[in-house]
Design brief:
The protein has helices at 2-19, 28-40, 62-73, 101-106, 162-167, 169-175, and strands spanning 44-45, 51-52, 55-57, 77-86, 90-99, 107-109, 116-136, 142-153, 179-188, 192-195. The protein is an alpha+beta fold and 198 residues long.
């Protein structure tokens, strides 16, 4: 009876120790948490860099207006047309786009560039960490190269329209389903693994 009690006690201690892994351990669970934490603060957005409104575009150039018109159709922008003087004697039609009331509520301001921002439509959610390798770098830090699958979560309803997917092919690709990517993570002091921005 005493041997059975001791066996149960030792088994329980082993399970408890196994369940208490550190955030610093190179595990798939820690890498998944670190990547998800990074992308919760870095959502997927319409443009690759922040934009400042109002914006003017030539309506005869579809490449300039397709995305802006799709955002207008989604109710995020307003569009006004006006004649603008060109040189001394001529004028041409220009569309002016600005944030609508709905657009202001969907707008994500850029902290580094006041007045600029983006329309963000969801964020990455790691579904699986497929494999990883760890090594040291030249400064002595421990880094991990991680291969993972992800989907886009919390997709904004306006991003699902056919017009948006056509005007912004990246949205179409992002919300199509599971995708594969790589991340480089660095082991930090007290915070465990973090996605490297380099």
């Amino acid at each position: 009876m005493r041997g059975l009690t001791r066996g149960i006690l030792i088994g329980g201690m082993i399970l408890l120790a196994a369940g208490c892994s550190s955030k610093k351990d190179p595990t798939k669970a820690n890498f998944k948490e670190a990547i998800n934490s990074y992308y919760s603060a870095h959502p997927e957005c319409v443009w690759t860099s922040p934009v400042k409104f109002p914006v003017e575009a030539d309506p005869s150039k579809e490449g300039q207006t397709a995305g802006l018109d799709a955002l207008t159709d989604a109710g995020l922008l307003t569009r006004t047309s006006e004649q603008k003087k060109v040189f001394i004697f001529g004028s041409k039609q220009i569309n002016s786009y600005d944030l609508s009331d709905r657009g202001r509520s969907a707008w994500t301001p850029d902290q580094q560039q006041p007045g600029s921002g983006n329309f963000c439509f969801g964020h990455r959610d790691v579904t699986t960490v497929d494999n990883f390798t760890t090594s040291g770098d030249q400064q002595g830090a421990t880094i991990a190269n991680v291969d993972y699958h992800f989907t886009i979560s919390d997709i904004a309803s306006w991003a699902r329209s056919t017009e948006m997917k056509t005007a912004f092919p990246t949205i179409q690709a992002d919300i199509a389903g599971a995708q594969i990517d790589k991340a480089t993570l660095v082991l930090t002091g007290n915070d465990g693994w973090q996605v490297s921005k380099d």
